Amino acid sequence: MARATALLCSSLLLLSCFYAQVSPGSSSSSRSTGMADEPALLSFESMLLSDGFLASWNASSHYCSWPGVVCGGRHPERVVALQMSSFNLSGRISPSLGNLSLLRELELGDNQFTGDIPPEIGQLTRLRMLNLSSNYLQGSIPASIGECAELMSIDLGNNQLQGEIPAELGALKNLVRLGLHENALSGEIPRSLADLHRWAPYLCSRTGCTHLYINDNQFHGNIPVSIGNMSALSRIQIGFNSFGGIIPPEVGRLRNLTSLEAEHTFLEAKDQKGWGFISALTNCSKLQALFLGNNRFEGVLPVSISNLSVYLEYLYLDFNAISGSLPEEIGNLVRLEALLLHNNSFTGILPSSLGRLKNLQVLYIDHNKISGSIPLAIGNLTELNYFRLDVNAFTGRIPSALGNLTNLVELGLSSNNFTGSIPVEIFKIHTLSLTLDISNNNLEGSIPQEIGGLKNLVQFYADSNKLSGEIPSTLGECQLLQNISLQNNFLSGSVPSLLSQLKGLQILDLSNNNLSGQIPTFLSNLTMLSYLNLSFNDFSGEVPTFGVFSNPSAISIHGNGKLCGGIPDLHLPRCSSQSPHRRQKLLVIPIVVSLAVTLLLLLLLYKLLYWRKNIKTNIPSTTSMEGHPLISHSQLVRATDNFSATNLLGSGSFGSVYKGEINNQAGESKDIAVKVLKLQTPGALKSFIAECEALRNLRHLEPCQNNYSLLKH
User: Fold this and answer.
1) Fewer CB within a 10 Å sphere, N or C end of the chain?
2) Third-level CATH fold of 631-712
């Protein structure tokens, strides 16, 4: 009974469901079509190589609950949106998506899809938004997309699409956004799209402004004059294409225009007619950015550029061939944050009105032909971060007012004719970090010690000047330095040892100076050093062999005639086996020894002379006996018959006494006594002197003076 009741209830439920399906507002066909959405989704999932967030797409749950799938409110079984941007999906886009007949939004941007855009997308007649941007899609844009009559936004940017824009896109009368940027599209803009004024009612009513993105392609031809009919157009990005001709002055009718980005094309202006668009743009009071760099603009810049919108923040005219002077009233553009005029042919002087641009953060005027001095008013640009005046014809001194630019990150003044010394104030800009370039001028004097204050500086160029003095040791305090170029100056002295602190140094060029001393070995320990030029200085001594010195292509040391050693590839003479310090020590040793020996010899000589003097003092000299002749040893030998025993009178402990006979000068014979002393016997000499004194006291006999001779042995 219970089983029958359950069966009856089931039958009534099925019957009620049947009536619900055929009730007003429903149809059997809508349910049957809804049943087709699931197979379409599964087919889409099956073509993915990496399903990312779609791992849960399976029969265990209803497809309307699958990630990225949105079903409708009026048709809860029907898929109305696929919102899968940044889902990390890869693979090909399945043609089965064309079966999702009620789909309004297809957002598959920022994934990794490859292959072609399936033409079956053209079957999605209710599609309003198509976003396939930032993938790797190739091939051409399907013309069938033109059949999606309700499309309001198409974004196919940042892919690898090729070919021309299908003319069929011009039939999309509801289109308010077309993004085709950063592809490889080519050809001209179709005439059907050139009639852009037809988009205006939808632009204003739906978004209030619109963007045209077709940059980074290969489009060519002229910019359509009819672009001026898009009164609600706010941003135009047509750069990095091959557009030619002039910018039509009709752009001046775009009163809502905030940005015109037309850099890196072949657009040109050679005369007043070609520059007419500048005057026309003065009507665009909301203009904030004008990017016209890397084109073919020539001739003189119109004065009317000073009358552009007061809201203008970015003005890029770099890499053209614009000549003449800068308009004096360019300082009227008081909200400018970036002014790029580099790589042109501007002449004349810098207008002092630039000092009124107090919001300026980037000022590039390098690679022109501007002369004169830097206006002191430049010191008012206290918000400036990047300032380059390189490769011009500026003269005079570098103004100390540049020290007011306390937010500078980069300063380039190279390749001009600046004279005088480097102002110390520059080295007090502690924000300088990217580059300080004052090379190729006529600067004199020394590099100030204050350079040590630039703790964050990465590149310092001061080469090709007339700088003198020593390299400041404080340069070693700039510990983030990677590049130091000081070549072609008159610097002297040695390489400061504090440079050993520059652990990130990659390039060091000190060539063509007057530096001397030994090449510091600490340069070998700078592991990041990849180029070292010390040529044409006066360095001496041994060249290291490790670190950067082990790579002959990374160093240059020629022009230093006193160097030796190094790796064989340098072809330098061999150094002595001893190190210079050891050689110096060995040279000192013989000098010291020689002096010591000399002093010792002098001391011994002094002692000898002193000893001999004492002996002479203690021994009476025969010459002191005035009036008595000197008797030689040979005379005494003859007088004593060679000291024969027959003449011996007596002997004692101190010596022996002999008698003798000698003839005087008158020829008379005279008897004498000769005493032969034994000097080796202590007291012999003293005893003899005492004996002489005793004899001298005898009045009747004077033996020591007359008849008494002394022979010592």
Assistant:
1) N
2) Phosphorylase Kinase; domain 1 (3.30.200)
